[in-house]
Amino acid sequence: MRRVGKTQGEADEEMVSELEEAASLPEGKEVDYLYAEGMACLYTRRTQQDPAYESPPHSVIILNDSHKFLLLEEHMLTFEEKLEIMESFPELRRKDVSLGRVNFHYEESVHDKTTVVYHLHPNGNGFVYAELIENKNYLTDHKGMVNIRDFTEQQIRSIIKESIESLSESTFEEIWVNHEKQELRLVYDFDLWNIYADDMLDGTFPTYNGAANYLEQEGFARK
């Protein structure tokens, strides 16, 4: 019974994840007035401050929860374009999964984690593993993933390159310091994130975000 319950729980969690991915939309530019003209898909904003704003051809519009128009620019790469970028990395191995989604694995990873690209979806959604990237400027979720739906080609290439490099490094260490110049080391050890004061273990966390949040709450910042 326990095995069945665990299996069902994992299936339910996967279903919730799939629904969240399918339901997400990219951020767009908010406008108050919209004018649409013919098959050219030319949308014009008419205000006193900005008499004419022309969007790129083939833009898409939606209404958000505040009933404001959101103008979604055409720069978002297609599923096929993103696939082409990812397949250009010889280090990655493609693996097709459910609902037309695609993962890419880095099998030479020195860590247990091998998934670099996770659930690239035909709707444009997709994630790249970034938890081990040093000095990262990416917003990661609880799995250490970054949503690349609105990334440009250069941004996708950069984060994948950084992800592969981070999985190739056998050690990861960051120094955090507070206003009193006290230093703590955040070290990735055996799939756990450990915080050390000199050689004394101060705390252990299952994820980087958990350790980073703790350090920030204690008044520390990356050095």
What is the secondary structure topology, with strand pairs?
Layout: H1 2-23, E1 29-31, E2 35-37, E3 42-45, E4 53-54, E5 60-63, E6 69-72, H2 79-87, E7 92-96, E8 102-106, E9 115-120, E10 127-129, E11 145-147, H3 153-168, E12 173-177, E13 183-189, E14 192-197, E15 200-205, H4 208-217, E16 221-222
Antiparallel strand pairs: 1-6, 2-3, 3-4, 5-6, 7-8, 8-9, 9-10, 10-11, 12-13, 12-16, 13-14, 14-15
What do these coordinates show?
By secondary structure, this protein is of the alpha+beta class. The protein is 26% helix and 30% strand. It has helices at 2-23, 79-87, 153-168, 208-217, and strands at residues 29-31, 35-37, 42-45, 53-54, 60-63, 69-72, 92-96, 102-106, 115-120, 127-129, 145-147, 173-177, 183-189, 192-197, 200-205, 221-222. Strands 7-8-9-10-11 form a 5-stranded antiparallel beta sheet, with helices on one face. Strands 15-14-13-12-16 form a 5-stranded antiparallel beta sheet, with helices on one face. The protein starts with a helix and ends with a strand. The model is unreliable at 31-74 (pLDDT under 50).
